[in-house]
Amino acid sequence: MKNKKFSLSLILLLAVSMILAACGGDDSGSGDGEGEGGSDQPEFINIATGGTGGTYYPLGGTFAQLIEEETGITTTANTSNASAENMAMIDNEEVEIAFVQTDIASYAVEGTQMFDAPIETIQGLATLYPETIQIVTSADSGIESVEDLAGMTVSVGESGSGTRLNAEQILEVHGMSFDDMDVQNLSFDDSTTGIQDGSIDAAFITGGTPTGAVEGLAAQVDVVIVPIEADMAQALMDEYPFYSEDEVASGTYGLEEAVPTVAVQAMLAVSSNLSEDVVYDITAAIFENTDSITHPKGEFITVDTALEGIGIDVHPGAQRYYDEQ
């Protein structure tokens, strides 16, 4: 009887051992099969944009839809305080993709200006379109030049934003500083609301034109864009080469004539933690569906100009896509 019990226990032990060995073999084989082929694809992707009144947010929504449709990865566009905060969000692994000005991306990688140390997890995906620096006011303000901002209440963009740094640099070449005015750090929406209700006199707004918040203002008051004249634009470009000459076209916001100004480039930065294959697929999702971009800035978003002025290392997945074109 004892021998029969021992034999039965031995048989059960062998059976369990064979089952465990088979399971182990399956797991090993499954791992080998996934290795290069997609186990690194994230379940979710988050895109940091900007405020709802700017250009980043609506474009981010379009990109999120394209990426989700083409890759199957659930993708969401999130509001934020834009460029500088977006770089910190990539570094903190809160988002995988972020809109940013080219100048701010360079500062982030270098660890200069508003960044205390280099951010090493940021790589470029693509440049998109010119981000026009618009000094917005109303016809009733009497402001006609940058110098007229002295003594006024002026929104220079949210704290840590690229807009704020643009404002500081533009004032600098005009021999001015924030000390010359009552500075407010407001979002685009709050800035244009402030101009409309008279709580502020003018606002710096960096964004693709037409900018939604300024369009909303133009529906209520006569909008004036303060010019940055050619000599001051040249001085700015000499000091900061990432700027270029630009203009706000006639007809925009009801303007009767084009207004000279300057611009930086908008770009997409991406986390270096994303795999080459995933970023390749993201890049393809955007540039093979540009006809789905309904925002006016969509006309600037092309694969032919995607690397112009990018200023930081390009993610290998994006570079592979461009190399194949």
Automatic annotation (TrEMBL):
Gene3D superfamilies: Periplasmic binding protein-like II (3.40.190.10). Its EC number is 2.7.7.6. PROSITE patterns: PROKAR_LIPOPROTEIN. InterPro entries: TRAP_TAXI. Residues 1-21 form the signal peptide. Pfam families: NMT1_3 (PF16868). CDD domains: PBP2_TtGluBP. One of its GO terms (molecular function) is DNA-directed RNA polymerase activity. The keyword Nucleotidyltransferase applies. The keyword Magnesium does not apply. Keywords: Nucleotidyltransferase, Signal, Transferase. This is Immunogenic protein. It comes from Jeotgalibacillus malaysiensis.
